[in-house]
Amino acid sequence: MKTIFLDADRRIGGPYTMGAALLAHLVPPALERRPDLVTRHDIEIRAVAPGLHGSVPARRRSLADSLPREQRVLVPGARRTLRLANGLAEFVRDHLTDAGPLTVTVANLDEADPTDTELLAVLRRRVGPALLVIEEGPSAPGRGPFVADFDRYRDEGFHHAMAEAGLEALRGRAYEDDPEAWERLLLRVAASLEAIEREEEARELYDRARRRSTHPRYRATAAYATAMILVRHHDHAKRDPEEALAWVNEAITITSLMPDRRERAFHLGFDLNGKALVEVRRGRYAAAMELVERAIELAETDLAGEHPIHRLVLYANRGQLLAMAGRKEEALADYTRAVEADPGYPDYYLDRGNLLQELGRTEEALADYEAVMRLSPPFPEAYYNRSEIRYAAGDLEGARADLDHTLELDPEFARAYVNRAGLHVAAGDLAAARRDAERGLALTPGDPHLLCVLGQVELAEHRHAEALAAFDRALEADPDLAAAWAGRGELAYERGDHDTALAALSRALKLEETPELLFNRSLVHRAAGRPVEARQDLLRAAQLAPDDADVERALSEL
C-alpha cells in the first residue's frame, strides 16, 4: 500500500491545505488513467486546489463565473463545503478503486481549517479502509500567519477562514490608510460570521462600522445586514421582525437618496428585497409581494445589461411569494425565468422541482432534481426529494436507495430519518426503524414525525405504554398530526377500547382522509357491533381506492 505524508496546518495554505495537497498527489495520475473522473469533479477540485486550475478546466459553469466580482451577489452558504467534501470523497474512492489503496499520514490536524477537518471526516465515513487509511501524524511548530485570499474565501464560501483571517486583519493596522477597503472587509467578515452562526459577533462588527464610518453605502449595508440577523438568526428565540423592520427602513432611507441612478437601483432593490423577508416574518405577505415587485421594476428599468444575478434572485423570490399565495403557475413561470437566466446554478432547479412536484408534474420535477445532481457537487436535498417521487410511484426500493444516499452524504439530515424509518416499519424491520427514529430524535428532539414512527415501532412490539407515551408526545408537538391520531386509534383497538379507537381514528380522518384510515375505522366499527357504519367506511374507501382487494373482500363479508 502506497503511503503519502500531508500537513494540515491551515497557516500553510488556509482552507483545504491538506485537501489541496492530497489532490496534488491524486489528480495528475487520474488525468492519465481516468480523465472523465477528473472532469466529473471539476467544481470540487478547482475549489479545493487552485493550483490545479491549469490542468482541470471548468466544465460546469454558472453565470457568476463570467461576471465581475461586484455583481456576484450570491455567496455560497456554510453547507457548500460539505458538498465539496462529498464530491472529493467520491473522486478519491473511484480513483483508488482503479489505482490501488493508499495510506495518508496527516500532521498538524489540531491546526487544520474546518474545511479539512470536515473533509477528513467525510473521507473516513465514505471511503473504506480497504482503499484509504488515514493516520494522524505528529504536530510541529507553527508556521506563522498565512496570506489570506479574501476574494477566494468569499467566492467559495470558506466562512471560517474569512472569519478567522478577517478578524485578525481588522485588529491590525494594514487597512489604516484605506478606510474603504477596511469597511469592505468588515462587511465580508461579518457576513461570514453570520453564515457560521456567530451572529452576535457579526452584530458587534456592524456596530463597529457604524461608529467609524459615515459612508452612506456602507452604513446602508450594515443596517440591512443587521435586519437580516434579526429575521434569520439560527436561534429563533432571538429573532425580532419588528426591530428588523426599523433597521431595514434605515437602509432603504439611505439607498433611496443615492444620486447615481444605477447604483441607487441596485442597492435600493437589494434593500427592498430584504424588507420583503422582514414582512414575510411579520406575516404580511401582500406587503412583501409589493416590495419585490418594486425591486423588480427598478432592476428592469435602471439596470439593463447589469446585475443579472440580482434580477434572477428577485424573480425567484417573487416565485416563492407567489407559491405561498397559491398562485403556483405564476410562481412556476418566475422560477423558470430564474433557471433560464443561469442554467448552471443548481439551487433554483431544486425550488422549481419542489413546485412541480406539488403540481403533480412529477416527471418534470424528477428532471429538475436530476439536473441538480449533474450541475452540483453532491446535494443531499436532491436525493431526498427524488426519494419522495419514487415513494409516491410505488418504487420503495428506489426511495430507500435515495434516502440511504441522502444520509450517507449528510448523516444529520433529520427528515430523511423520518421517511426511512417509515419504510423500515412498512417492511417489518422494526430494529432498523427504531435506530433511525432514535438517530433522528438525537438531532431534533421532540420531532413529532419521528416520535410517531417510534410509537409505531413500540406498538408493533406490543409495548403499549411506551407506544402511548410516544404518540402523546408527538401530539403535544403537533396536535394535527394525523398519523399520531391513527397510531393512538390502532393502540386503543388492540387494547379493546373501541370508543377511544373510534374517536382517535375519526380525528385522524378529519385531518387526512385516506383509504387505509377508513378501512381501519371500519374494523373498529365492526368489532363494536356497528356493521352499518363499518359498511359506510368501506364504501368510501372503495371510492378512493377502487382496486383495493382488502376493501373489496371486507365489503363482501358485510
Describe this structure in words.
The structure is a single chain. The protein is mostly helical and 558 residues long. It has 29 helices and 3 strands. Strands 1-2-3 form a 3-stranded parallel β-sheet, covered by helices on one side.
Provide a brief overview of the structure.
It contains 29 helices and three strands. With 558 residues, the chain is mainly alpha-helical.
Layout of strands and helices, then pairs:
Layout: E1 2-7, H1 10-13, H2 17-33, H3 35-40, H4 42-48, H5 80-99, E2 102-107, H6 114-126, E3 132-136, H7 150-156, H8 159-171, H9 179-195, H10 199-212, H11 216-232, H12 241-256, H13 261-281, H14 285-302, H15 308-324, H16 328-341, H17 347-358, H18 362-375, H19 380-392, H20 396-409, H21 414-427, H22 430-443, H23 448-460, H24 464-477, H25 482-494, H26 498-511, H27 515-527, H28 531-544, H29 549-557
Parallel strand pairs: 1-2, 2-3
List descriptors.
single chain, 558 residues, mainly alpha, 29 helices, 70% helix, globular
Instruction: Report the strand count.
Output: 3
Q: Which ranges are low-confidence, i.e. pLDDT below 50, for 5 or more consecutive residues?
A: none
Distance, first to last CA: 71 Å
Mean pLDDT: 95
- Principal-axis shape equals globular
Percent of sequence in beta strands: under 5%
How many DSSP H or I helices?
Answer: 29
Strand order of the biggest β-sheet:
1-2-3
Radius of gyration, rounded?
27 Å
Which structural class is indicated by helix and strand composition?
mainly alpha
What portion of residues is helical? over 70%
State the major sheet.
3 strands, parallel
